[in-house]
Q: What sequence folds into this?
């Protein structure tokens, strides 16, 4: 079956979810990934939403925002933001998904502003819960379109901390997160329209793990604002199978997010 | 209510409280609620349940009554904050996210920050967790709440009200989130009695913290019900009605945001707003059509075609099992 780059991303995102995990789902593609994982390899995963909702099954019909009424129907808990993010602060959440306008090679994300802080060229909406998820989840998965202007050497503003930067006190990576006092976590995967990166937690650097069918390492490099580092087992991304595509299309019948 | 006994004087506000104390019916029209309780320069918290239950009807009345110099407080505001910014009501934003959940960027917010159109605004960045903690701190009477979220984020550098300190217990870094006490919280609910004892359900966001943190609360309800209906299920009450100064009965008052059990989200309305407000002129036209030239919520809803309104209605009711408060 033919598939779109968005469907490829959903499948890659679903592969990051392990059975039994508690997952901060977010909207759009990760929401589909949660539904897909739930119906395939991770039937016991739990989804959390920062509006205050926890679900053990996807919403009974397609939702456009996490606050849409079907997302509350049959939830296992309808509470508030503080309780759900508080669970994450206390170390209960294994995986969080977020998107971003810009990311750099160390997985730092910017959704706040482009340009100078005092006089920004473009004012973006801001963090929402993203900075909290990046700070507090055990692992972070980031989903965004692949574009040279978005995958930059350094971001203008760190909204959501990844692995920081090397500085006089040490390297980027897990040691940077410890230096600034973050309790855990850091980016595990960056899933784009062209490729999947995993992160070397010691150096904090994104490593090209796979490039989607139809692209090449050269094409990925062309669209990436830093010199690529390849994972030792870097290979072509395994494409979605027919069963996966059927499940995704059942969740997004009109292709609002995937076409 | 009497924060400082020594300087308390028998002014208009005090008289109003006395009125309320003697008469527990706090029901007023939206026009009256905004005229009495929202003044220039105030800080207002709304949009507290995140995407649902956003009190657009209240926001539109604030625009029509031309309040100025407001500070808006909220986690994510969807397009309500953008509308108030574009209408020139706002001096400062204290929020985690200002945008359009369906469209992404918020055009009026961009114009205000990037080009001071229609006027410059100050932005104090938060995350959803930090805004929740700031309101929680105020609701507890605590000066601040420490957290390990946002360490390493530029948010704590951009917003000068945060403090980066060492925890006295383990010497590890902590962010101190200062208490945030809004002058007024405007909270949209499913149903309330005329005293402001209000039932709400669905995702609550930071509604509970904001109701307890704010000095004054305005309740906007889809339905006004008998006191007996509310007290039959006290666990579903959002907070104590003694904090409530006004109750407004405003069916469809949260449109285009959803109200669980009443109506669904009007996604198209958000998309149209995104398309039509790309330019300042486009926004002014939108504002004239949907706010300035509309007398009230009844007139606003009359503008929405019947079939559109019908499409938003609840398709299938899903009632909870009753609970037994017997003894």
A:
């Amino acid at each position: 079956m033919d598939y779109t780059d968005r469907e490829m991303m959903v499948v890659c995102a679903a592969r990051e979810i392990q059975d039994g995990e508690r997952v901060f789902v977010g909207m759009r593609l990760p929401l589909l990934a949660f539904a897909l994982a739930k119906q395939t390899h991770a039937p016991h995963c739990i989804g959390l939403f920062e509006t205050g909702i926890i679900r053990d099954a996807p919403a009974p019909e397609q939702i456009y925002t996490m606050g849409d009424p079907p997302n509350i129907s049959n939830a296992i808990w309808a509470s508030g933001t503080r309780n759900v993010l508080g669970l994450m602060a206390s170390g209960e959440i294994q995986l969080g998904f977020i998107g971003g306008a810009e990311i750099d090679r160390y997985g730092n994300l910017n959704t706040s502003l482009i340009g100078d802080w005092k006089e920004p060229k473009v004012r973006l909406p801001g963090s929402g819960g993203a900075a909290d998820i990046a700070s507090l989840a055990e692992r972070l998965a980031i989903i965004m379109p692949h574009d040279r202007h978005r995958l930059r050497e350094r971001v203008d503003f760190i909204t959501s901390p990844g692995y920081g930067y090397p500085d006089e006190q040490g390297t980027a990576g897990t040691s940077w997160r410890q230096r600034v006092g973050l309790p855990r976590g850091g980016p595990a995967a960056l899933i784009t329209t062209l490729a999947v990166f995993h992160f070397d937690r010691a150096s904090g650097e994104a490593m090209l793990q796979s490039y989607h069918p139809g692209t090449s390492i050269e094409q990925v490099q062309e669209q990436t604002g830093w010199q690529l580092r390849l994972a030792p087992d870097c290979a072509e991304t395994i494409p979605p199978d027919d069963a996966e595509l059927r499940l995704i299309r059942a969740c997004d019948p009109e292709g609002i997010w995937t076409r | 209510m009497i924060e400082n006994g020594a300087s308390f004087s028998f002014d208009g506000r005090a008289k109003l409280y006395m009125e309320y104390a003697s008469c527990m019916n706090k029901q007023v029209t939206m026009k009256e609620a905004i005229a009495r309780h929202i003044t220039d320069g105030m800080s207002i918290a709304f949009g507290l349940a995140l995407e649902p239950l956003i009190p657009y009807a209240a926001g539109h009345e604030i625009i029509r009554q031309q309040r100025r110099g407001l500070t808006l407080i909220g986690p994510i505001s969807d397009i309500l904050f953008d509308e108030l910014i574009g209408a020139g009501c706002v001096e400062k934003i204290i929020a985690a996210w200002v945008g359009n959940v369906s469209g992404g960027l918020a055009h009026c917010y961009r114009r205000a920050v990037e080009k001071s159109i229609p006027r410059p605004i100050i932005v104090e960045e938060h995350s959803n967790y930090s805004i929740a903690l700031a309101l929680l701190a105020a609701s507890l009477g605590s000066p601040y709440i420490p957290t390990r979220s946002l360490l390493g984020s530029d948010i704590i550098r951009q917003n000068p009200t945060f403090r980066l300190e060492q925890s006295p217990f383990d010497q590890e870094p902590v962010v101190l989130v200062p208490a945030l006490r809004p002058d007024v919280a405007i909270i949209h609910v499913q149903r309330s009695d005329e005293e402001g004892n209000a039932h709400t359900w669905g995702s609550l966001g930071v509604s509970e913290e904001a109701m307890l943190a704010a000095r004054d609360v305005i309740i906007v309800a889809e339905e006004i019900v008998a006191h007996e209906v509310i007290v039959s299920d006290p666990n579903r009450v959002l907070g104590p009605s003694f904090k409530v100064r006004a109750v407004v009965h405003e069916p469809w008052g949260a449109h285009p945001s959803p109200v669980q059990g009443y109506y669904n989200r009007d996604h198209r309305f958000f998309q149209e707003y995104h398309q039509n407000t790309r330019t300042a002129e486009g926004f002014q036209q939108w504002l004239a059509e949907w706010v300035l030239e509309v007398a009230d919520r009844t007139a606003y809803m009359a503008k929405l075609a019947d079939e559109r309104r019908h499409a938003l209605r609840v398709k299938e009711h899903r009632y909870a099992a009753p609970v037994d408060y017997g003894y």
